Write a sequence for this structure.
């Protein structure tokens, strides 16, 4: 019986040590996991996931408060990447939040712009240039096509176009 | 947008998969002739049976997978599998052994993985291993080679062989003595220590086991021809044979504590060593990809053949050695990515 | 001068029998085309035009906005009027068109007043020589299409050896041979000029084995220009010995593996045609805007080397060479040699600085069928970059080009050797080229995403700081107010009318209480 106790103690100690070692190789805490998740998100910052940006959504996934299928711009590809990282099942995109669309760009019809700065405040990546009572314009290379500038515009002078300037965001 | 690959000009390659497989079949001929000479026409019947089964199974599979039957059959891979399996079967094995072996080789061995080029295991060896495990009796009934000094035995003729294979006539020990003789390696392993030396001497031919040495020489010849035709590279056969010979040499040192009395030469020219080294281990699909990986892969096979021959319960270790090493191929490939590095051989100027 | 026969070789490669190797096709000078097309997006450069349609341009005029240093400018190859700036066929982007400047040629061929960059090259300082070279937009005439200026400035070690690559890149290409025969002196003079510019101690002219005729003419030209530090090397004719890294390995014994480049090892390798163009630039001060293009193939009546203006539509050259039968969609068009040339569809695509050969072949009667890879490793045996194409192919087929990168996909020189030997007829090079494009695109997306994330984080930080600042100011004001009241309270006993003030405050509070809905304090 003593032999059995010894064997199992040694076994338990060994396995425990190995597991401990392995655990230290995994992401230590939720914040570094959130970083890794954030890396996989498309950084459109559109808020379609019901969070105010990609990072907050990443934090919510890391703390298991949100499912991985809430990112319409990322589409299936992002879901697969997240499932891979987190070892979860691949689930279908929550289409109630939006559809995966090809890359687009916001363009301001400049002669119609009244210079209200509302879109500037709405833009999550500071891609709109302008000042009060001055015409605004979108910096095409910075625009993520998140559509957040559309609702606040009082004169509806912002259009979305297919992204031909930047590379195709697949 | 149209994919680039569709418009890039294709260049006709001078050698196709079909030609490569034909070369392999031709290379098998010398060994096959020796085999037929010593073990009778049973082997030819095996080949015919396996080929017919293989073509039928392949056709059905390809039809089910909705691919081009013509392309699949003309690449010749199924026929090569059939030849290799047939050569490992005992000459007078019942017909259903051949058919069953081919079924296992092609269905789970090849098509379930996605057909030619996608099988992780050598299909012929998979079929053989299945048969050996399920039907050990049928699979170890080897005939005594013709004209062996100790029995002066005669071989059954073609008609007799066909009848035995089809089951309409039974192996009749009145006609053919010692019909269930095992391979010489098997015999040596199971010989009592006091008879060991006489057993070894009894089955000794010029360089290897009697009769087996000739078929091994034949396969060696075919293998060398394939090397010359550049159908295979030297890496796998050389490492298999070198390591196998080395293992035998080490085990012959009295200090090693083993009583094995098989010389390296005997080991190389008995059983299926040459067939395995040149034709089975070199199956490119299931072997390691890089040249360095192939050396490791071959060495592993050589070592495992020795281990299984000496310590295992089976007469020959090639099949299991190859299958076990097939398992390690992804790992070997992972660690053997050829990465050339910049270097100055000498200062420029 | 005795040529030096080298026997070094590189790993892999193919011995290719080229029926045209010994024959040198005639050189035909072409006049001005009616239209000239200049793509704004090539494999190494992208330009923003500074001109608009309808504008008249002169030969040698700069057509693009100044870009960061290192980029080479876009020059008008002849004078004319800009017809439009629109999407147009381009051989470097098969299947797709790219934005291009299309010029209606006026036939005057007038130089722009600023086109001549200097009068005497030798009077320029080294820096101004380099600046002039950059302004001349001289792009390598080999296959890669690197600007010569960038090649010179990317060196991290002083250049010791200049290799003149007179090896024909691949079978069927003939323009270098023709140039060597007609303008060997120009090439040698260009080599001297470049060697003195980059400070190379010795110059090696490399030519492949088996070109006796050209070798002879080179030897003669070299005897005229006696020089101690110029040697002539004959290298074994193993494809792709004309590729930069392979030639460097054969000539200098230095193995250079991508992403490493020869200039980091003190070696500069230059195509012979580039040097001839460099010579014409150095001696006149005008940028060189023409090049030799081989037009050949089974469908061409009179194969020849055309001295064509850069930007000439390929159709013009094919028309001069003539075809056996009218062009159909089944004809196969290739830009580059017969091994690693890329197919394209549109005849209207222009000749670029690195377009060395155009092949037009008759419809293929027996198209090959691609079958599964059997991992026979022939491809890895012939790969001059010492890669494992079969493994890369496996990962690409599995939809994971990033895994193929671990096997050295980036080091692939797209020579096409693997395609040649593949028994399964798999178009490996094309799939590698495809995957590299995919990966490059993915990388760009990643960069863009990182940039968006950075901007988002910065904005978040800014907003946070703004709120903090606002709160801080509120607090400050509150504290100031409190202090004020406290001080008034403290000082109250000393005031004679303190009681009166207190009474007044009490009254006002009373009043406020009686006024409902107004709880704001003063």
């Amino acid at each position: 019986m003593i032999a059995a106790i010894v064997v199992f103690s040694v076994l338990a100690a060994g396995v425990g040590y190995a597991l401990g070692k392995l655990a230290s190789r995994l992401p230590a805490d939720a914040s570094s996991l959130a970083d890794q998740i954030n890396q996989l998100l498309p950084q459109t910052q559109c808020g379609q996931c019901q969070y105010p940006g990609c990072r907050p959504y990443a934090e919510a996934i890391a703390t298991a408060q949100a499912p991985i299928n809430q990112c319409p711009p990322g589409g299936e590809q992002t879901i697969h990447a997240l499932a891979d990282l987190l070892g979860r099942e691949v689930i279908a995109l929550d289409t109630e939040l939006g559809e995966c669309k090809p890359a687009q760009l916001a363009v301001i019809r400049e002669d119609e712009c009244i210079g209200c700065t509302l879109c500037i405040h709405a833009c999550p990546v500071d891609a709109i240039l302008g000042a009060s009572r001055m015409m605004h314009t979108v910096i095409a290379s910075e625009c993520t096509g998140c559509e957040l500038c559309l609702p606040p515009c009082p004169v509806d002078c912002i259009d979305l176009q297919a992204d031909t300037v930047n590379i195709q965001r697949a | 947008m149209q994919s680039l690959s569709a418009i890039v000009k294709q260049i006709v390659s001078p050698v196709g998969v079909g030609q490569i497989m034909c070369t392999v079949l031709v290379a098998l001929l010398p060994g096959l002739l020796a085999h037929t000479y010593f073990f009778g026409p049973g082997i030819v019947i095996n080949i015919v049976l396996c080929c017919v089964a293989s073509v039928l199974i392949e056709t059905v599979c390809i039809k089910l997978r909705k691919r081009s039957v013509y392309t699949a059959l003309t690449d010749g891979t199924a026929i090569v599998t059939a030849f290799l399996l047939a050569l490992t079967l005992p000459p007078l094995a019942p017909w259903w052994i051949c058919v069953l072996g081919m079924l296992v080789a092609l269905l789970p061995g090849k098509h379930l993985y996605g057909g030619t080029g996608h099988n992780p295991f050598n299909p012929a060896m998979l079929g053989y291993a299945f048969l050996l495990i399920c039907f050990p009796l049928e699979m170890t009934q080897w005939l005594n080679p013709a004209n062996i000094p100790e029995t002066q035995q005669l071989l059954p003729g073609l008609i007799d062989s066909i009848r035995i294979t089809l089951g309409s006539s039974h192996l009749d020990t009145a006609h053919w003595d010692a019909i269930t003789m095992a391979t010489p390696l098997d015999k040596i392993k199971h010989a009592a220590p006091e008879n060991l030396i006489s057993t070894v001497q009894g089955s000794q031919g010029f360089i290897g086991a009697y009769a087996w040495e000739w078929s091994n020489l034949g396969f060696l010849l075919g293998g060398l021809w394939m090397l010359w035709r550049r159908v295979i590279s030297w890496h796998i056969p050389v490492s298999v044979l070198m390591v196998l010979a080395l293992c035998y040499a080490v085990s012959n040192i009295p200090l090693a504590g083993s009583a094995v009395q098989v010389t390296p030469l005997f080991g190389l020219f008995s059983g299926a060593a040459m067939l395995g080294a040149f034709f089975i281990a070199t199956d490119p699909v299931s072997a390691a990809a890089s040249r360095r990986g192939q050396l490791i892969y071959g060495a592993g096979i050589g070592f495992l053949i020795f281990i299984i021959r000496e310590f295992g319960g089976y007469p020959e270790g090639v099949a299991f050695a190859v299958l076990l090493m097939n398992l390690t191929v992804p790992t070997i490939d992972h660690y053997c990515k050829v990465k050339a590095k910049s270097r100055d051989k000498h200062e420029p100027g | 001068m005795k040529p030096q026969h080298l026997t070094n070789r590189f790993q892999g490669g193919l011995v290719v029998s080229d029926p045209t190797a010994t024959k040198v096709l005639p050189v035909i000078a072409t006049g001005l085309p009616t239209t000239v097309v200049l793509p704004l997006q090539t494999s190494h450069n992208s330009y923003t035009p500074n001109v608009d349609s309808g504008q008249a341009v002169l030969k040698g005029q700069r057509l693009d906005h100044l870009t960061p240093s290192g980029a080479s400018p876009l020059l008008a190859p002849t004078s004319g009027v800009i017809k439009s700036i629109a999407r147009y066929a381009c051989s470097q982007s098969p299947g797709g068109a790219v934005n291009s400047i299309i010029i209606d040629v006026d036939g005057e061929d007038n130089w722009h007043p600023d086109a001549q960059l200097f009068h005497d090259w030798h009077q320029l300082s080294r820096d101004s020589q380099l600046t002039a070279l950059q302004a001349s937009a001289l792009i390598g005439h080999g296959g890669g299409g690197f600007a010569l200026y960038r090649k010179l400035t990317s060196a991290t070690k002083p250049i010791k050896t200049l290799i003149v690559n007179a090896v024909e890149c691949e079978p069927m290409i003939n323009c270098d041979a023709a140039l060597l025969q007609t303008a060997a002196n120009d090439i040698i003079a260009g080599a001297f000029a470049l060697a003195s510019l980059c400070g190379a101690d010795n110059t090696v002219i490399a030519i492949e084995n088996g070109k006796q005729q050209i070798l002879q003419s080179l030897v003669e030209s070299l005897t005229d220009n006696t020089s101690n530090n110029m040697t002539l090397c004959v290298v074994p004719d193993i494809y792709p010995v004309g590729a930069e890294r392979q030639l460097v390995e054969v000539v200098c014994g230095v193995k250079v593996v991508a992403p490493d480049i020869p200039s980091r090892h003190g070696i500069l390798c230059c195509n012979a045609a580039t040097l001839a163009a460099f010579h014409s630039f150095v001696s006149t001060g005008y940028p060189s805007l023409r090049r030799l293009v081989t037009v050949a193939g089974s469908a061409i009546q009179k194969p020849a080397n055309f001295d064509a203006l850069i930007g000439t539509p390929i159709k013009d050259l094919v028309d001069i060479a003539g075809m056996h039968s009218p062009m159909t969609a089944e004809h196969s068009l290739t830009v580059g040699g017969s091994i690693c040339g890329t197919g394209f569809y549109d005849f209207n695509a222009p000749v670029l600085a690195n377009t060395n050969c155009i092949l037009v072949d008759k419809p293929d009667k027996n198209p090959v069928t691609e079958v599964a890879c059997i991992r026979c490793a022939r491809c890895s045996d012939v790969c001059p970059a010492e890669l494992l194409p079969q493994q890369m192919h496996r990962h690409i087929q599995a939809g994971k080009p990033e895994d193929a990168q671990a096997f050295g996909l980036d080091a692939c020189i797209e020579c096409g050797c693997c395609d040649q030997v593949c028994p399964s007829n798999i178009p490996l090079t094309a799939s590698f080229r495809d995957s590299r494009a995919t990966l490059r695109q993915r990388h760009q997306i990643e960069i863009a995403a990182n940039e968006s994330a950075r901007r988002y984080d910065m904005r978040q930080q800014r907003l946070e700081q703004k709120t903090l600042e606002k709160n801080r100011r509120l607090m400050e004001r509150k504290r100031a107010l409190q202090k004020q009241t406290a001080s008034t309270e403290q000082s109250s006993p000393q005031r004679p009318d303190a009681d009166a003030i207190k009474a007044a405050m009490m009254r006002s509070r009373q009043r406020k209480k009686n006024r409902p809905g107004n709880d704001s304090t003063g």
Remarks:
- The CA atoms of residues 340 and 346 of chain B lie 17 Å apart.
